Fold each of these.
Amino acid sequence: MATVEMDFLRGQLEERKHRLEAVLARTPDEPNLELLLREVDSALDRFAVGTYGLCETCHDTVERDRLLADPLLRYCLDHLTQSERSALQRDLDLASELQRSLLPPADLTVDGWETSYHYAPLGPVSGDYCDLYPCHGRLFFMLGDVAGKGVAASMRMTQLHALFRSLIGIGLPLAEIVVHINRFLCDSGLDGRYATLVCGLAQPNGEIELFSAGHLPVIAVERGTVRLVESTGFPLGMFRDASFASASLRLCAGDLLFLYTDGLSEAAGDGGEYGIDRLKHLLGRQCSACAAAVISACVEDLRRFAGATPGLDDVTLLALRHGVPAAA
């Protein structure tokens, strides 16, 4: 693991030790707290002798994401007891249920916009982020991809969800929200936990304010013409003082905005990667379809392309369509 992450974990353990000692000084007859303090002391001892983060059975490295979620771990996944495996599976099931509870309503229609999304984690939990938030007659939309996989990435996704909704709720402009979240991720101390992100504010009249922080190009289908809206800044969490420029769009009735993570564009098939050109061609043929039909067509095309090849990443898609198509 990176030095910054190891320093972070050691700091977390030292802080936990001080808190436990303070509580035990007030309530000394707490056997569960005494046991926990011994586990924390053992972890700090492993830091002192240079064995922290190594499995006590095989001496291989304990999985990074698991250590970041629980700094007291002593065994890799291959050497958990059956009861530990069962407990881990229960925790993953609960985490998966929590993540899905944070997703927006399916096929949401609000404020002159119809929406649809597809959310398919590679494992029990996902580092992909997708949200729709109607607020005061406008629609905020967010789609992102946290670096890495597993529990630590899913925790970052949950942080993004809470931060966006809290900052939107107090009325901050979208530009300020992006800056605040970037600084939070930079200051959190977890090395390499950046996130690519597209977020936007859609008005009932079709106007969109769009920020893309290091994410894949957004695809706009405007009156049958397909174009890419490229990233306007660095990923969030890379540079604390980074600035983020916005793009402005004005969609007419029937126009479409399509967002996706690299689980789609980098999906592997017999012909190589799925790619953005294939996606543009598909969306160009779906210009008269509703948002839900666009998502269904994309998912079906991905299945035809990838066949039985297992995916290597989470796949999240989001379509926003303005109004209704004009009469022929």
Amino acid sequence: MFLPVFIGMMRKLYTIIPLTIVVCSCTLFYPACRHNDSILTIMTWNVENLFDDINNGTEYHDFIPGEENWTAEDFHGKMASLSEAIRQIKKGGPDILLLQEIENENVLNIFADTYLKGMSYNHRIFSKEEYQAAGTAVLSRIPMEAVYTHISDKTGVATGRPIVEVHFIVEESSIVIFNNHWKSKSGGEKETEPARREAAYILNRRISLLLEEEPDRPVIIAGDLNEDIDEFEKCDPAYPTALLDIKNLEHFTELYPETDTEKNLLFTQNITPSNNSTSLGLPLLYSCWTDSETGSYFFRKSWERIDHFFLSSSLVDESGMELKDFTVCNYDFLIYPDGGPIKWNRERGEGYSDHLPLILEIFLKD
């Protein structure tokens, strides 16, 4: 049984590209249900190069199927390990699971039907460009109302991967979630920043339109953005960054007066009714990260906060659906004693990913 797919674009901003998108409903096998009718649970996790054992010609070199690189044993071993972690982190699994670095729909379906069996992930999305090695995926026990994919058509400033926008119906209300995997810093932080800023631009324009239609619409931006929450301060600031804390906006505009601020995701950790928008006409988002959390990714012996949940103001203003909790899954079984997530190790047949998962809980008010 297949659900209808709605793939949209805004012609002035985006172009439709060749994508592999799978949306399926497996209600013949499992009943769709949530474990807590008052709480919506969402997990985002970059599972680090989850490839199958079939040679499709687009794999990274280390994951071309073969005895020396990547085998069926590796594939199934890693899926078993990841699924075990998900079961330990959240009994019954999250309601919505946002994944990055999934090779294809074959991986997604085996993961859901075999290793996450019984979790009622009846609704599925997979998306990537045809030439790419891996893409993003969504597994959900919540019905999907519509799906849109976005990517820039500006030459020379490619975002790297499609941004997937999914509209869910929860308790007869709509919530919009964007699953992201922005371009990495491989090739240079400054050199690759335009791609991340282009992704921010796409999100800003799309979110602005969604909130113009419905100001109180709950919107969530999630995934691996390959940019730290304090990126602007960390780069000292040698170049404009895609993520920008609203407290740094004045300094930013002084340093880069000619720079288009539409290419910044503006965020704060203290949204109030008086500051839920900006004078620039851009949406102001709430970042779930605080200074008390160390990070989700370990690079050069230090933690980084590059995996994210950003929320629209309606999720933190006590007016309807509301943020209940945000958790960095830094549990002992996922982390080396000396720091850093425990990556999959094919020689030992154990491990998980070089990223930690994040959990978001949304309280569904009457």
Amino acid sequence: MTRPVKATVFGTGSWGTAFAIVLADAGCEVTLWGRRTAVVDAINTGRTNPDYFPGVELPANIRATADPAEAAAGADFTVLAVPSQTLRENLAAWAPLLAPDTVLVSLMKGIELGTAKRMSEVIEEVAKVPAERIAVVTGPNLAAEIAARQPAASVVACVDEAVAQRLQAACHTAYFRPYTSTDVIGCELGGAVKNVIGLAVGIADGMGLGDNTKGSLITRGLAEATRLGVAMGADPLTFSGLAGLGDLVATCSSPLSRNHTFGTNLGRGMTLEETIAVTKQTAEGVKSCQSVADLAGRHGVDMPITETVVDIVHHGKPTLVALKELMGRSAKPERR
């Protein structure tokens, strides 16, 4: 008899917990690692994550631990679900504990500050594993809807298609439909840039601007992501799929989106410090907008919406001034 697939999820936040539910519903034996023993105990005894999904009962084949060595032992898939800017430090501590030949799976949608590296590049460097053992899960996957088992599709990407197919089988359920891809670069960039555009659309909503503005920002934001992706060797078609347009639409349209909500508060006139104070979860685009802009600069790619978000978020530029400057740029053909 074939043993169940063993999966470990490092991180008991909203997306880590939701993806653990998916893996468990797909038949995996799942271990959740959490830093705080109170959350670990609540998961093991009460079958809920009280911080994120207090009303959602977790499957019986999920257990939690605060011991990273215990969590990592024997895992076929090791899923990393921590804030992108903390990945390097966390993974450095976990790397010696990883099971031999485990596939490392990134749920993170960010670009590292300073290095401008994608999350799979950080994983490859820190864990010293080949790209063929690193996979990415991305797409329109708002965690609360996944935890409620509402229908959703996603992309699992790995340069080794066979590994992507293994992960696809490990997380395929009646409500979660994963597709495979070998375009890791495009999938990661789609996820990172959409957070920045989500901030921009949120700012516009907070300013009271309408659907024409939102549609324009989404479309031109997608053009920015595609330009950057092509410059870095990604397949442009990736950006018209779930990892690009699908994720972008969900992020820019939903009040469940952290980045959209963060941007809305900025657009209403709150300061960065005030907005951070009322935000309970990490809005990846707040820090990644700067690293995305840095990445674009390194590749000579023009990303005016991204640059505008950086100006508002990190340089304190008033939203009305930033909007006027963005709209006042020189006219050009759309396909450029």
Amino acid sequence: MARADDLTLDVRGLETRFLTPKGPISAIRDVSIQVRPGEIVGLVGESGSGKSVTGLSIMGLIDAPGEVVDGEVLLNGEDLRQISARRRRQLRGDRIAMVFQDPMMTLNPVLRIRTQMVEAIRAHDPKVGAKEALRRCRDALAQVGIPAPEERLDAYPHQFSGGMRQRVAIATAMLNGPDLIIADEPTTALDVTIQAQILAEVQTLCRERGTALIWITHDLSVVAGLAERLYVMYGGGIVEEGPVDPVLDHPLHPYTDGLIRSVPWHNEPGRPLNQIPGMIPALDRMPRGCRFHPRCDRADEACRQPVALREGPDNRRVRCLYPLGKV
């Protein structure tokens, strides 16, 4: 466990609820994540596990009928849950930024790239002159591998391919040198060649600038080559965390093991794909205790009681009474 003063982001016990016709339901609960300067952390799990809600909660982008009801979100020691709305707007896009799966959630289709990027700079530093802002925009586009950045600044988003739009979104997020970027499956819709290029560029940018990055994905093959540490989510909570190689090579939690075994390249040709039995339960029907126990062949009556994260080998933690390895 890193010291608090070594961390860019320190999320402690985060819980987000949504008001529904059936009453308030927790989409995530007791989520704790730590990210150091320049570190890339992977947040993985099935659809519906709470990954995106976690990212939006950290950013302070949860709106009614949702609400962050518990926990701390410390960015360089400053609790983002306790600051004013004005201070939060100052930090977004400056010290903390988010890249979405669909770049058109970030880019305005009726404005030139030049206008959008310059506004992103001057919104946080009005003293920056036009020439300096344009220089920073050109440099940012060049850093993410966009050719002829001077010409591209005059283009509209629809004149870019999907991969190029995502590069623009990443460049815009990096413009003000943020301390933290949260990337929510930003390469899922891209072909593998473009995906590999963007991943390599992101790694370089984080290493050179010291930017911390949370990469949200369901694709284990992506985080295997990108992240340094991994957080595995299931049913709105963290079930395993640790350095990426030990977690993927020797998973402790049965759910992590099931995720890895369900990846196609783990299966022999001609044989049915391995699957985790059952389905992830609906938020309003989450089982008590370990939320994975109805799908787990190692579970017994004790798993129906609350299970805390336990220390494991290799600087890892796991939320399981009967882990696969020695704890």
